[in-house]
Amino acid sequence: MTVRKFAFRLAHAAAALTLVASAHAAGAPFPCKTVTLVSPYPPGGTTDILARLVAPGMATALGATVIVDNRGGASSNIGTEFVARAQPDGCTALLGNNTGVVINRTLYELRLDPVKALVGVGAVASVPLLLYVNSARVPARDLGALVKLVQAAPGKYAYASGGAGSPQHLAGELLKTDRQLDLLHVPYRGQGPAMTDVLSGQVSMAFETTTALGPHLSGGRVHVLATTAAKRVDGLPDVPTMKEAGFDDFVIENWYGVLVPSKTPAPVVQRLNEALNQALRAPSVAKKLKDMGSTDVSGSVEAFNGFIQKEVPYWTTVVKRSGAKVD
After folding, report:
1. What is the pLDDT, as a whole number, of residue 327?
2. Among residues 217, 204, 224, which one has the least CA distance to residue 159?
3. Is 277:29 a contact under the CB 8 Å cutoff?
4. DSSP H helical segments within the chain, as ranges?
5. Is the pTM value of this prediction over 0.70?
6. Of the candidates 3, 58, 71, which has an alpha carbon nearest to the alpha carbon of residue 32?
7. For the chain, which ranges sit under pLDDT 50?
8. Beta-bridge partners for 254
9. What's phi and psi for 36, nearest 5 deg?
């Protein structure tokens, strides 16, 4: 199975907001004075970072307060279900990703189907992963050397992830199956805690987004071996892609977006979409997302929901290929 490049490619003509729509969004009162934007992970990971990045701009556009509420646990299932069961009034939204929305439904016996229980408001970001190692714990400085180290010491090395079913977990399992490596998976309650333990040397390595790992690249505590992007990341020109390092069909990106309960009235969903896209257009936010290596994914409600529907069969296939299981 060829793992396609994981990006949105939404048409700007259909996605762009008009000045009239923006003016309407700024002028009309939103039904909620406070919008709770749930991040289904602990603080410190990419989802939390993105939620706090777009919240101020959305608040301005809506004329409401937008607070970020971290509800981590169960590989994002707790926070995702919390939003899915919330009142469908636009006052509770999810900053979700491919893990909680489409991947977990293949790995877990969920009490509800997120694809049916939620409706997409709009996309926020799509970022590649970086394979990195703790510099003191793992002497390898390229992916070939890492493979040889693990092969020479079966069971000695482990990789961390933010929980079973995350793209970081699936990437680790693909690494194992592609080279038949005896590599232990250590799941955490979010990418923030997982990254903390790799940085401290408690765990050998992990896959992480450019967003979360970026601030930790200086100082020498970690070394990045490869990126799962289709081409080299602009900010890391010396880091090869997985394909360049000898792994074909290994292109994975993590996508993020805002979702609300499926019965939320369409005008409310549209208003939230306009506010989200206004937040994403802010120069400071756009620059931050570009620095993270994110693809421009701002777009319409219809485009985002159409994309989600296409993701379901894709990730079902990736899960089966990786051999990933819930621990």
Report:
1. 58
2. 204
3. no
4. 12-15, 19-27, 46-62, 77-84, 98, 104-107, 114-117, 143-152, 167-179, 191-200, 210-213, 266-281, 283-291, 301-322
5. yes
6. 58
7. 1-26
8. 127
9. -95, 115
From 137, 169, 135, select the one nearest 153 (Cα to Cα).
137
Q: What is the pLDDT of residue 186?
A: 95
Q: What is the distance between the alpha carbons of residues 171 and 154, in angstroms, rounded to a whole number?
A: 19
The answer to whether 48 and 199 are in contact (CB under 8 A) is no
| Tally of residues, the chain | 327
Q: Check residue 125 and give its pLDDT.
A: 93
- Which one, of 202, 268, 208, lies nearest residue 47 by Cα? 208
User: Angle formed by the axes of helices 167-179 and 143-152, to 10°?
Assistant: 70
Beta bridge partners of 209: 129
Give CA–CA dist 28/18, Å, rounded: 16
Q: How far is CA 305 from CA 52, 53, 116, 160, 289, in A?
A: 23, 22, 11, 31, 21
Name the burial class of residue 173, with classes exposed (0-12), middle (13-18) and buried (19+) by CB atoms within 10 angstroms of its CB: buried
In DSSP notation, 301-314 reads HHHHHHHHHHHHHH
Q: Are 77 and 113 in contact (CB under 8 A)?
A: no
Amino acid, single-letter form, for residue 23: A
* Structure confidence at residue 317 (pLDDT): 83
Please state, in angstroms and rounded to a whole number, the distance separating the CA atoms of residues 211 and 69.
Answer: 20
Does residue 39 contact residue 48 with C-beta atoms inside 8 Å? Answer: yes
* Residue type, position 6, single letter: F
Give the pair of three-digit tokens for residue 219.
């100082």
Amino acid identity at 298 = S
